[in-house]
Amino acid sequence: MEKKEFDKLVGIETDPKCYERIEFVYMNSDKFQTKQEIAEFYKEKDMNGIEAEYREITEAIYRDEAFKIFVSDLAYYARDLNSHIKQHLADTMHQIFRDKTVVKMLSEYRERREKEFDELTKKFEWSARYGEKQTWGASCLTHSDSYKEVIADMTYNEWWHEHADDFQ
Questions:
Q1: How many CA atoms within 13 Å lie on the side-chain side of 64?
Q2: Which of 24, 56, 138, 156 is the most exposed place for a label (fewest CB within 10 A)?
Q3: 137 phi and psi angles, rounded to 5 deg
Q4: What highest taxon heads this organism's lineage (predicted)?
């Protein structure tokens, strides 16, 4: 739903920040099947009603164990990214969570990175104990870089290319 379209339905221009909440509620609530329904709800209950719906939805999401795991996987993935990208991921986290492919890839990325680290540790131990030369690249079974690139493409690359100059 476009902001202009919503403004037309309610007959006033809504604040962009308020509209973000309205859109979130519309996209995540089972109560509203049409744009007209959420417009009528807004006219009747104003932002207080929208905020109450927003809190109800987000509290249910935050109690969900799958969401907690997702947040942990997202934080693990983002730990080496710059602060602007981290903020973008935080701002779009609910949208990202709805994409089950990305959720699964974040989990797989973390698992593979941890296996890569375990392999690296073992190689250092072998090198220390036996003085053997090691092959230092990640094995194809644990390789995580391709996951990192695909997740970036699906979550922030387009946004970053549009906004990178804003942060110079």
A1: 13
A2: 56
A3: -70, 155
A4: Bacteria
